[in-house]
Design goal:
Layout (H helix, E strand, L loop, with lengths): L2 E6 L7 H14 L3 E5 L13 E3 L2 H7 L16 H6 L3 H6 L2 E8 L1 H16 L5 E6 L17 H22 L2 E6 L6 H10 L3 E3 L11 H18 L4 E6 L1 H4 L3 H6 L19 H16 L5 E6 L1 H4 L5 H19 L5 E5 L5 E4 L1 H4 L17 H9 L9 H4 L11 H5 L2
Parallel strand pairs: 1-2, 1-4, 4-5, 5-10, 6-8, 6-9, 7-8
Antiparallel strand pairs: 2-3, 10-11
């Protein structure tokens, strides 16, 4: 029997199992054997791969679950791995005709390398990729979301609303940090849904350099503005991406002691961004003599394996069926794309990659969009020139905490 192989790479996102199950159900219906590979690409570079057949009952059991039934891995094979450890027999012995990969752009790039390697060894197969990320930062056409984003935002909103309710109840402040290494979609989406009075995302710094002082001063601006309004509580949402874009000198200013990797780079992923931002804020408030209790909350791993909401259950089902649609048309070396009307088409990496770097540039929040500007100007709280006199009770130089001046908007 001809078969397909499917693996998952990178980190989890809600809808992984829905994609795998939908691919499996569709190909089983058309007479194919479906082989699931555990531990990502590492399964292809060993003579004892962790694999299991995915039958209808297995697929039906997992399609609406969070997490990933197929164990995930960030393993990225080297040239030496291809030369000495690639398991070509797995493809030949199982008559694999298609490799389906679910992951980010690195996973897609490696799938192309696998396909080219197999072709050079006279065993050509098709490879089709299903792109995922809760960060929503892949530049899909027509502003289509990446799968998992809406489910992560929904669960993040549950957490975010609970935090805001605690702020109101206890009259405290919370510093919340949301995942998003390169873009602030998740942070802004959760904050907007929860009516957070302050949001700080990387895209806001489109006209000025990101510094620790600017990040902290934006939050202080909100705290003082709310005090002037007679509202001694609130929550600030800060995207983790603003931290990742700080210069090395600014990272040193943060006062955090980092562990370093083999290349001498600080291991930023081991640090709670919420704790970091909260510590910097507390020091600034103490220096200014402003009394406000602040607490850190991280939103990240808590939303990656949640049960997908209806949107992603439907979207991921369409993506899974779309894989067969493209395969039956002879497509290969592409990602599956489903538009808002349910039409399926291939997306090729070369059409998304930067021709100079070969990398896919992240899709970022547009700070000048009508949605962002409406929220900034109507829901967020911060010092403006009209507040300078009242803010002087809390700040020696209120103009330095003017939201628009900090960002040079």
């Amino acid at each position: 029997m001809q078969s397909i192989a499917i693996l998952t790479g990178g980190g989890p996102a809600p809808g992984m199992n829905t994609v795998v199950a939908s691919v499996a159900k569709t190909f089983l219906r058309h007479g194919y054997r479906v082989i699931g590979l555990h531990s990502g690409y590492s399964a292809l570079f060993t003579d004892k791969p962790r694999m299991q057949d995915i039958d209808f009952l297995t697929a039906d059991d997992i399609f609406n679950r969070g997490g990933s039934m197929l164990k995930m891995s960030r393993f990225k094979p080297t040239d030496d791995d291809f030369e000495h450890r690639f398991n070509l027999d797995f493809f030949r012995n199982n008559e694999v005709k298609l490799l389906v990969t679910v992951g980010g752009d690195d996973t897609a790039s490696t799938a192309n390398r696998v396909a080219k390697f197999l072709e050079s060894h006279h065993y050509p197969i098709a490879n089709i990729h299903v792109p995922k990320t809760i960060d929503n930062d892949l530049p899909l056409p027509a502003a289509s979301p990446t799968f998992g984003f809406n489910s992560a935002k929904a669960q993040g909103t549950v957490i975010g609303n609970t935090v805001m309710e605690d702020a109101r109840t206890s009259e405290n402040w919370f510093v919340v940090s949301a995942m998003g290494r390169s873009a602030g979609h998740l942070a802004f989406g959760i904050a907007e849904a929860c009516h957070y009075p302050m949001v700080v995302i990387p895209e806001f710094f489109n006209r000025t350099t990101i510094t620790c002082d600017k990040i902290v001063n934006l939050v202080v601006s909100c705290i003082v503005k709310r005090n002037i309004m007679g509202v001694p509580y609130g929550a600030a949402m800060i995207s983790e991406g603003v931290f990742h874009l700080l210069s090395d000198d600014e990272i040193k200013k943060s006062g955090v002691n980092f562990s370093y990797d083999d290349h001498g780079h600080p291991e930023l992923g081991k640090v709670s961004k919420a704790v970091l931002f909260n510590d910097m804020l507390e020091r600034k408030l103490k220096a200014l003599g402003i009394k406000a209790k602040t607490r850190p909350v991280e939103i990240g791993y808590e939303v990656r394996c949640q049960t997908p909401i209806a949107y992603d259950l439907t979207y991921c089902t369409q993506l899974g069926m779309g894989v067969y649609n493209l395969f039956s048309q002879g497509a290969t070396g592409c990602m599956v794309y489903v538009d808002h009307a349910g039409n399926v088409s291939p997306l090729f990496l070369k059409d998304l990659q930067d021709p100079a770097t070969g990398k896919i540039p992240p899709r970022q929040v547009n700070p000048d969009s009508a949605e962002v500007q409406a929220y900034v100007r109507n829901i967020m709280d911060y010092i403006t020139p009209a507040d300078y006199a009242a803010a002087a009770k809390y700040l020696p130089n209120p103009e330095d905490y003017d939201f628009m001046k900090i960002l040079e908007w």
